[in-house]
Each structure stands twice: as C-alpha cells, then as structure tokens.
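Hi support team,

I submitted a single chain yesterday and got back a structure, but I'm not sure I'm reading the token output correctly. Could someone confirm the output below corresponds to the sequence I sent? I've pasted both exactly as they appear in my results page.

Thanks,
R.
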Amino acid sequence: MTELALDTSLARAVDALFALRREDGSWQDTLPSAAVSTASAMVALHFADPDRSAGLISAGARWLRETQNPDGGWGDAAGAPSTLNVTPYAVGALQFLAPEASAENVRRGLERIERFGGMAAVGDRQQCKLFVMCEQFLAWAGLHDENKIMRLPMQVILMPRWLRQKVSFTVPFILSWGLMQANTRPAGRIRRAINRLCEPRILSYLDDLHEFEGPGGGYQESPFMVALVCIGLARADVRPDIVRRCVDYLRATVRPDGAWPVNRDLELSATTFVTHGMQDAGEGDRLAPTLDWIRRCQRDVAFPATGCPPGGWGWSLRCGWPDTDDTADALIALARAGHDRTDGQVRRGLDWLRAMQNRNGSWSCFTTDNPIDLDAACSVMSAHAVTALREAGGLTVTDEPIAKALRWFARTQRPDGAFTCPWYRGLTAGTGAVLDALGGLGLADSAVAHRCSEWLLANQNADGGWGPGSTAEDTAWALIGLLGAGAHGHPAVSRGVEWLTRNQRPDGLWEPDLLGVYFLDLMYSCDLLATGYAVQALARFGAGHE
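Hi R., thanks for writing in. Yes, this is the structure output for that exact sequence:
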C-alpha cells in the first residue's frame, strides 16, 4: 500500500461523504427495503386504512412478488438468503391481500416453508423467532388455526415499572398484540377481568411513548414496529387516534419501490460513525455544524419505557430510544472536538453512562442488569462506553467504572480470545472494539488484549479481509482493534488496508453487509456504518505511518 493510494482512497471517501451531508450537519443512512416490514405495513394499512391505501397495499404486494428468491422464500433484504423468520410473513400477506395475483408466489413460498420443516418449524421458537407473528399472518390467510397461536403476555403491563422496564425493546409489540388477542379471541371470566385491568395501562404506556417520541407516530422510528402496533390497535378497535398516526407514518415512509425498511434510518448512529472517521482523517474543522446537531440530539428528559435518566442519545433525532452505544459515540465525537466534562452536556452524558453501567461492570443497550436477549450485556457497547469515559470523562484504569469493565472483559472473553456481541453478527465487532478500548487505556500488552489480537490475526481471510466472505465492516473493525493495540507494522494490517482500498466503490463509499441485528434474528445493513468505520480504519493507519 503506497501513501498515495491511501491518501487517494481517503480523499475520495471524505469528498463523497461531505457531498451527502445534510444542511443541518447530519448524515442520513439507508437501510434496505425488507419483506418483513413491507408485509407488516401492508396488513396494517389493510386493517386501518383499506380504501385510501389500496394502491400502497398493491405496490407492496408487487414488491414482494418481484423480490421472491429463486428457492421460493424471502430473506431479510432483497436477494438475501431465505429465512424461516421472513418467508411465512410474505406468504401470509400475499395470500391474505393479493391471492389471485400471487397464487404462484404463494405456492412456491409454501413449498419453501415445507423444506424448512413445515408448520411445525414455524411454530418452534428456536427455529422461527418471529413465530407468533408468522403464525398470525398465516392464520389471516386461512393457512393456520388462529386459536393455536400463543397468547402474548400483556400482563407484563401489571408488573412493577422497574421490572417491566427490563423487557424494553419489544414491549410495544407485546402489549398491542396482547390487546388485539384480548379483543378478538374467546376468553374465560378470569382472563376477561385481567384484560380489562390491562387495557387502560397499555394505552397509557403507548401514550407515554408518543409523548417522548413526538407527533410523527414513528414508534422507535421503525416502520416494522409501527405496523405491528397499528395492527394490534386496529384489530382491537381501540384508540383510533393512535392508529391514525401510525397510518400517517406508514404512508409517509413508504419508498418509491413500494416497500418499507425495518428502520427508517439511524441518523444519529450514522452521523457519529462518519464523524469519528472525519476526525481521524483530520477534517475536524469542517464538522462544527455536525457537532451542533449531535448536541441537539441529546435527550433532556428521562425515558419512561426503560427508566433511563436524562442525558442520553438515541439512534435518531426524535424517536430513537436513548441507548449506550449512541450515547458513548456522541460523547467520543464531542471529546475529540475538545469538549470535556466541564461542558454541561458532556457531563450529563457521562452521568448517563455511569448510571447505566450494569452491576457486573458491563453495559447493555437500553436497560441495566438484564439477561434478556438484546438487553443483555454487550461487548461493543461496553468497549465504547469505556472509551467515552476515558476520552470525555478523563477516567483511567484506576477509576471504578473502568476497573469494573476490565474485570468483566477478563471474565467473559471466550477461550479462543474473541468476544460475542448481541447486536452484530459474528465475533469481529466485539473483539475489535474491546481491543481498541484496551489499547486506548494503555493495556495493549494485557492478556485479554493479546488474546483479542491473536484471534483477529488467526481469522483474517486469504484475501486480506475479515468476516464471512470479507466485508467492509468486519475488516474495518478488525483493523481498528489491531491499530489501537499498536500493530501498524503488522503484515496482516497492511493486507486489511489493501482490501479496503481495493473494495472501495466507484462512488467512494463501501458496500454494506447484512450484519446488524434488529431483534429476533432480523438482520439489516447500514451503508454509512460500513463507510464510517472504513474511513476510521484507513485514517488511523495513515496516521500511524506519518
């Protein structure tokens, strides 16, 4: 890798990214259109707005037919491998809403489901994480018995608030569909009494979310989640005002191709990924409007759904829930621009991170001390939180928050040296992030760091990249970790850098891969995540050779 080639690659990426920056200083990423969210939106509009939205429903059905895989199934994005999570969704929606035009697609889809293991596999929560939704969509299509579908535990709303907050991300779906089942399926006297007790509390919970997230109706800024809530309330025949907001959101977020993404965008996340890369590339002088925008995204009120305090950041400006990773990334961006704990907003963000640390020393995404799925401890988020506390808060290895995190890293590292992460596919993200955090603390020679490095070096692909088939994200994460540990001169690092420059697209960006986890095994890609991290890796490599 020549210095000229590296400089040229970075310059192309920087120019392309600044050309994409919005007037307010932020960047907006693009997530792929998805069959699961498109099918959900179609069904939601059918139940809540059938006449006005007939054209959108028809266009969504056409998109599903056009993106069916040759094997008869559907995946998390167009062209992605077929999954049991998604295929029943699409089959049910097409048979329910467009049976004549979709007869051949439904036949092929049902054959694919049979090859997955049939309805027994659809109903097996180990094989099909979206089993309740899949069975319900098939039931509406006349392909499954609705009375055999598991009832969702709407009684979670009766739990003490502190315990209910542990469930976090999936609660809007559980509550709205539990309400739907309560109002559309037979129930005995005791169940009816419990349902009557739950309903006003559920609606109050959804009102609290709406007050926090704003008037757009975009629960979690996710067309998928909005569609699920809309279906539940419309079928339950309650709160037409919330249903109307959901319909307006779905109509506003449909894409020109007739489909919807799982999430509309991750604008704060994307902006911080890119900002870190620009700062590493020496472009800090051009980021003043971006940093102002990041400041405006900080939430100044507590969030009732998870119980977190004020001071956090979420993945999007209005509807993103405050979470560890976006809070840490925002603080890192501000710290690298010269803002420390004497800055009021930085101090509130640091207080938020300290309040959200788990008792075992780690961090989760939305809640504390929670072993459930996506709310469990996360190596990437813990590493980023440690870096934020160090860079923005001035903490060192002797300060208890970081000392506790280091003990957690040592306890949870796999025997092979890698770290798992619930939010990204594979092991590269967690391993690279922890190694980078340790390097920043001056612990590149520690036993944990050595094992991270050994795992990364042992798992580089023959072409110089990392990850299944080599991806920009995995390659960048591995390089950032190795560079953070001081491995600038290692041949593996040079090969990884060459892979990134060789695989840069003509437009200056990098191709994203389906490696982000939304929830329940649904995967997504984020174009600016791939490019933001690639720029960070290349810029840090260049800085180490100046």
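A quick pointer for reading it: The mean pLDDT is 94. Let us know if anything else looks off.

Best,
Support desk
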